[in-house]
Amino acid sequence: MSADDGREPGTTRPSGKPNHQPTKQLGPVTLRRQQVDGGSTTDQRLLDTGGPTDWLHADPWRVLRIQAEFVEGFGALAELGPAVGVFGSARTPADHPSYTLAEEAGRRLVDAGFAVITGGGPGAMEAANKGASEAGGTSVGLGIELPFESGLNPWVDVGINFRYFFARKTMFVKYAQGFLVLPGGLGTLDELFEALTLVQTRKVTSFPVVLIGHDYWDGLVGWLRGTALAEGKLSEQDLDVLTVTDDVEEAVATMVRAREGRFPSPPPRRAE
Ligand SMILES: C/C(=C\CNc1ncnc2c1ncn2[C@@H]1O[C@H](COP(=O)(O)O)[C@@H](O)[C@H]1O)CO
């Protein structure tokens, strides 16, 4: 519909075409015949609170929610400073050695000047947030809306709740300079392999990934080297960023070294 034909945009128009079928123009999208919703106007649907709400959940509108997640995430984390992501099982109980290691990791990372970013959930995430918060550092939780809602753990001091995994995952890799990965299941493996893929494809550079716990991770690393690498499915270089240790202090030292490599002292200012 043209803007100068005297009719409200997006409403029914006699076109002169067969049967004067209603036409609706939504930006670049044209709808005709039964695709046009019952001839109601935009403001009518806005004010008619009893009306159908399906449009709220339509994919084109979902884009705005997705966009909002990026805007809110970028806004909340813009001034975070150097940070490390800590990942691990949501099911790690508080009396498990992995919980203690995650807590120690959170604390040591803060002592080394890092903010700590986790998935904001229970288990290893909670432990890392606890260590970071108790050490007086910045304890970030990027939560995810799940059908079995567990909410942000109580040790998250800066929390954002995401609906979309992909928006949340962007925040992890954008704001963390490396990952410490404790024993975990599918969620942890997803986060681990996303980081390795982004390094392999040079989407992120200088991004150390430290797996904590030889007993848990050696089998996986052995398979990556003995099968995936041996059969040419990845290259030695792709695994260069990956180390395994039982020593949290060493894991944090790896992050510090990477930070020093990535952020050398700034060049002297030029005289004006
Ligand atoms: C399973 C339970 C709660 C799940 N709650 C979560 N909250 C936030 N983030 C989560 C949650 N579950 C998984 N994640 C993400 O995946 C990683 C852990 O997954 P895993 O399969 O447990 O290894 C973790 O790093 C999060 O980013 C009930 O307790």
TrEMBL record:
InterPro entries: LOG, LOG_fam, LOG_family_nucleotidases. The keyword Hydrolase applies. SUPFAM superfamilies: MCP/YpsA-like. Belongs to the LOG family. It catalyses: N(6)-(dimethylallyl)adenosine 5'-phosphate + H2O = N(6)-dimethylallyladenine + D-ribose 5-phosphate; 9-ribosyl-trans-zeatin 5'-phosphate + H2O = trans-zeatin + D-ribose 5-phosphate. It comes from Nocardioides taihuensis. Keywords: Cytokinin biosynthesis, Hydrolase. It is an enzyme of class 3 (hydrolase). This is Cytokinin riboside 5'-monophosphate phosphoribohydrolase.
